[in-house]
User: Which sequence fits this backbone?
């Protein structure tokens, strides 16, 4: 049922369902249900694996950074909001890393691809392919919301196109992600406008937050630029110039060249899995 | 009839507005965000039901917070938020004049015929 009209409430009562006694909290769906998980013909499995790894690493590392805000946010309601967003990204990371492992197996003669946990917990920093934007520890709430805006605007634009990917699994992951990221972007944009167009102090902090982001604003895509320009204009903020974190010998996060911050993330993220490699819970 | 006015603030019925200990003092600048009451309509529910309350700076933020706090388990398809101060609640002192007169009029209930088991939402 996707048509939401004024009669939808009555329509749903007539639906054939085994849980119609429940008004709340049912109808969970598996986004990958019924999708062929084999790598389609004409798709380079190694390239697909590398691509899923990049996007999965972005979500995994950023999710962890958002989780570190738990118990530190100004309001309980914001805490739940950010926990939801972190959980959405962790879900994306799990599906993307699992897909990277499947594609990795398809690309190798022995057919062995790593499992999602193996990829998440048993790689070192130089094997991670996330962008450096997601590694940084937020200094304050302005940095949190500013970075979330840039990240979700960029990822949403990308996932919108990946939803038409030739790889059915990646397309399904992206289609699910679009709905989540639309909310993340909306949440972040509202805060950027609220703080940017708020008091003098909040404006200055928001402007400073945009300035320290380890992303080169000149290199974003045109449709992302349009979104950011719209939000920043409403927030009375200026688009920062060049990114403060330059390339290292022409390389960045996608090449495995990271900032110091990633080491701290991984140390925490991987500590339990590495101390107890066979543990289950 | 009492002169006190009541609000639904707190989300659990009538709360007196005057002569009640308020922390911080009512005259001071409010450090907390105002309270909003949240109403949800579930997928198979016909009407919006009060599910709780939350703090937010403005109605739009309240809607976001309501989505994050009250629809996490796939409950809702529609949300209403209402500023708690905009709700006028009946007073406990008026309980008898308000509700007692309906107590003996059993003929107003549709209890004199059998309802089939598979008819929901009665």
Assistant:
């Amino acid at each position: 049922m996707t048509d939401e009209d004024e009669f939808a409430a009555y329509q749903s009562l007539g639906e054939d369902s085994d849980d119609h006694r429940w008004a709340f909290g049912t109808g969970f769906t598996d986004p990958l249900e019924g999708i062929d998980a084999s790598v389609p013909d004409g798709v380079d499995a190694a390239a697909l694996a590398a691509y899923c790894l990049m996007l999965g690493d972005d979500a995994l590392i950023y999710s962890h950074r958002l989780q570190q805000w738990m118990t530190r946010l100004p309001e309980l309601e914001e805490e739940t909001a950010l926990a939801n967003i972190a959980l959405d990204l962790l879900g994306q990371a799990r599906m993307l890393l699992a897909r990277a492992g499947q594609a990795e197996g398809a690309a190798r003669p022995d057919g062995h691809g790593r499992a999602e946990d193996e990829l998440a917990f048993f790689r070192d920093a130089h094997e991670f392919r996330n962008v450096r934007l997601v590694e940084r520890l937020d200094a304050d709430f302005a940095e949190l919301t500013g970075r979330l805006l840039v990240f979700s605007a960029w990822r949403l634009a990308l996932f919108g196109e990946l939803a038409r990917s030739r790889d059915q699994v990646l397309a399904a992951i992206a289609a699910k992600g679009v709905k989540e990221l639309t909310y993340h972007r909306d949440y972040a944009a509202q805060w950027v406008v609220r703080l940017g167009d708020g008091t003098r102090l909040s404006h200055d902090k928001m402007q400073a937050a945009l300035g320290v982001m380890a992303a080169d604003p000149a290199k974003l895509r045109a449709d992302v630029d349009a979104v950011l320009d719209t939000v920043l204009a409403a927030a009375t903020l200026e688009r920062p110039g060049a990114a403060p974190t330059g390339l290292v010998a022409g390389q960045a996060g996608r090449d495995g060249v990271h900032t110091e911050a990633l080491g701290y993330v991984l140390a925490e993220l991987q500590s339990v899995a590495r101390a107890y490699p066979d543990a289950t819970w | 009839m009492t002169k006190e006015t009541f609000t639904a603030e707190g989300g659990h019925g009538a709360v007196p507005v005057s002569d009640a200990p308020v922390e911080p003092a009512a005259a001071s600048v409010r450090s907390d965000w105002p309270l909003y009451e949240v109403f949800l309509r579930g997928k198979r529910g016909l009407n919006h039901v009060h599910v709780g309350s939350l703090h937010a700076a403005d109605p739009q933020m309240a809607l976001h917070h309501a989505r994050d706090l009250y629809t996490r388990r796939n409950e809702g398809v529609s949300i209403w938020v209402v500023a708690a101060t905009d709700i006028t609640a009946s007073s406990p002192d008026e309980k008898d004049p308000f509700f007692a007169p309906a107590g003996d009029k059993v003929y107003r209930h549709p209890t004199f015929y059998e309802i089939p088991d598979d008819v929901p939402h009665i």
Observations:
- The mean pLDDT of chain B is 78.
- Residues 59-70 of chain B form the longest helix (12 residues).
- Residues 3 and 18 of chain B are 10 Å apart (CA to CA).
- The longest strand of chain B covers residues 35-42.
